[in-house]
Amino acid sequence: MSETVIITGASAGIGKAAAELFIQKGGTVYNISRSPSPVKGIFNLSADVSDKKAVENAVKTVFAAEGKIDVLINCAGFGISGSIEHTPDGAAEKLFAVNFFGAAYAAQCVIPYMRMKNTDLNNALPESVIQPNETTENLSQSDIPSNKTLSRSDIQPDKSLSLSESTIQPNETAENLSQSEFKTRSNAAGANGYTASNNTLSESGIPPNKTLSQSKPNLKTGKNKGGIIINVGSVAGKLPIPFQAYYSASKAALFAFSSALKAEVKPFGIRVASILPGDVKTNFTAKREKSPDEPGYGERVKKSVEKMERDEQNGLPPRLIAEQIYALCKKNNPPAYAVGGKSYALVVLLAKILPERLISFLIEKLYG
To answer: pTM of the predicted model, to two decimals?
Structure first.
């Protein structure tokens, strides 16, 4: 059976590479981000990961279409650089909203669906989550499109979510359609990209008049087997870098979050792991937000950031990190974390062995 994979930030970089790989391996992949992913065969759901309601609605949409969620990969993120002293007001909060809370929200939203494996279904899901045998008439109106229904056929590969009224008729569920009808209507839907104010999915929600259990027999048979959550952190979360203090802190927070979450959800058969890449060649470099002015620091900030950017542009290909992520997903008992790239794994290992004062001195020489 095809794995259902949600990737936040699959529009570029490591997330895009992971989406390509999982699709090549036969997975059904959904991208949750503000920008659509260009990956062929992906299903795009437009949402800002820092908006919990938007993430919740996106996850509900995936579950309504697939009946299960097997993998969550949190890749959404960006960087800021500059001294702590001159970081603009609100910049750090914005960074944490995406890099840390975006991952936390996605994890919170998928866990109820993943933990069905060894739990009585009637008690497994909180009221805010779709219940088996529950019609979506009981959902709040804010989650339901007016006079419209939604099915897997509404979400087209390579397109953002579309809400074509002609795709599925009122009181009609996708499982009642013949294969030819389903394909025909699937091809007809998605002509226009989905748009919503603030890039959320609150308008789409879940289809009214649709009973999920009819088209999701695996919920009754208990075949929805746990799942895995992969959080994409950074070596900077283990070895903080000067003039990237807030970025380093956001990744350190995500690492701690992942470690705690791993223990919390283990009894439900849910696995959690972090991947800590070093320098990777992506558009992350070009999108880094920089402090405009650094009085008192001379050329130190400029030289430090320039070195980081040179290292990144000569860094690892994102496909290599994607392959490590895929390998983690296939492990029954993955490690708490894996470092992206052998050279960076050696650096992290040496940091455990060598005196902390020496490690700090070396980092200061390189980036301070």
So the answer is: 0.75
